[in-house]
Fold each of these.
Amino acid sequence: MSRNLYKHPFRLMKRLVRLMAMGKKTLLAAVFISALLVSMLLGCQVVKLANANFEPQPSVYIEPDGNVTGTDKIIQDGNNYVLTADADIYICVLRSNAVLTEQDTRFTPSP
């Protein structure tokens, strides 16, 4: 078979061109796939997942025993608790029969 190729140099050239073309296509495909994989890997490292917290966490607690923790802007008088200053806080009332009122402040309870 090799003798046949040497007798006809155009056949040899055709075969070499085919091999080179196939090699170029394979090389191009490998480069394309490699670039795609690299971009996917880099893209995965950049993306951060978001965590959502739709309910605010209480920063002030009125405990079941009556103690107030987290602020000094609430004073206690028995079961009555008085907010003495404007404050942007979330209050968690754990005490039964507690009454929370305001003293010269704007008190807006959330629903």
Amino acid sequence: METVAAEASNRETPLQPLSELPPGTVAIVESVQGATDLRRRLLEMGFCNRTMVTAIRRAPLGDPIEFFLRGYHVSLRREEARCVLVSAIPSASREERANPSGLRLWK
């Protein structure tokens, strides 16, 4: 536990549960927690460390939440999404990833 806390303090962006990600936000999975069966199932669905995930939308009452990762859409209950810790990617970083050369593109 101490190493996880030390890693978290060295990060530029704080870890947050996947359930708190606003729609349209892109994040990187940092860890999966929870009961053994739930953790195994989340890992099988693709929520592995260093995987990019996008929050798509929430149901009208906030549960379930739809995410996009590894080329497919998956919906999780809020309680399940709380077990996945992510670090959000700032908007500027996403733009830099789309245009790594830094050249100005015509729109």
